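Example 361.
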Amino acid sequence: MARVTINDMTKKFGRVTAVDGMSLDIADREFMVLLGPSGAGKTTTLRCVAGLETPEEGNIRFDDESIDKVSPALRDVAFVFQSYALYPRKSVYENIASPLMARKVSKDEIDRKVREVAQKLHIESKLERKPAQLSGGEQQRVALCRAMVRQPRVFLMDEPLTNLDFKLRVEMRTELKHLHADLDTTFFYVTNDQLEALSLADRIAVLNNGLLQQVDTPENVYEHPANRFVASFIGSPTMNFLDCALTNDGTPALAADGWSLTIPDNVRDAIKGAELDRVVLGVRSEDIALRPQGSSGDLDAEVFSVEPLGDRNIYDVQLGSSYIRVKTAPTVMLDIGDRVRLNVDRARIHLFHPKTDRAIM
Ligand code: ATP
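Predicted structure in complex with adenosine-5'-triphosphate:
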């Protein structure tokens, strides 16, 4: 158990700045997820915390102790990799026991610990097998058991569920949540899967190009993204973005080629407060209602394509010269080319600065 404080950390590889001035405070026992696309700098960040890379600038503390000069072995972290990294010739039992053997713990104590964690992760009946005789999900459980067999100050996990199929990933997500509650230890977890981040994290740190974009609760990164990158990276389908201008012919509105959407005064005031006359309107697909022609609604559009996903339909509709995506119940059946009306939930729209991409509302 430890609070982890990363202070203004920069790590470069030659000309590539993998992590750029990162400051991140992870509370004791927090489940912090570092989320970002491939190449964002996630693994590098974890490796710096583990002591496997040395940052050029900044420092890292565990509680009040600076660990910059502490060797990886003495940092007391457990690292779980995407690739499991199990010893192929050792049995499951020996794999799980290996961190304790290295610490010269007594045989009885090792046996008690191995069986305890194996039971927790439902692998106790496979202790005599070799890793190759296990499924991917079971191998990942063994890797987690090996990390859990001693009580590290911090768990570092680098995309541990990536190699699992969808069903197992969902199951393991639930297990990881239980594990975190059981172990009562700080988790620093890396993924590029926004669903994993939303479902696991106490807080999510969104990283892009080595730069932290936003650190906040799952609810807040979804409901109040700090910029267009966060808004587009989190949520599926991706948020709709429409470049538009503020107009005011009696009623304030946002308008672009072929459409105009009236807006409440507070939205107009936010745009004016930012001294803008053009903005990027962001609307999530679930915040637009799609109705057949003839219904009341804000905007006229035309169905371009439909993606039936079983529990919902995703419609691509043409709005003026733009295309946007709308999520509907599976019972909404419309054909390509049908004219429709759209209703936009004004209380849930987002506005972004057209140049800086920062959220202005
Ligand atoms: P992924 O999700 O694909 O694993 P990531 O977010 O973990 O990506 P990193 O592996 O941390 O990203 O890489 C960040 C940047 O640093 C990338 O541009 C990568 O090519 C570069 N990089 C990482 N390790 C090294 C290295 N040992 N030598 C040179 N460049 C590296």
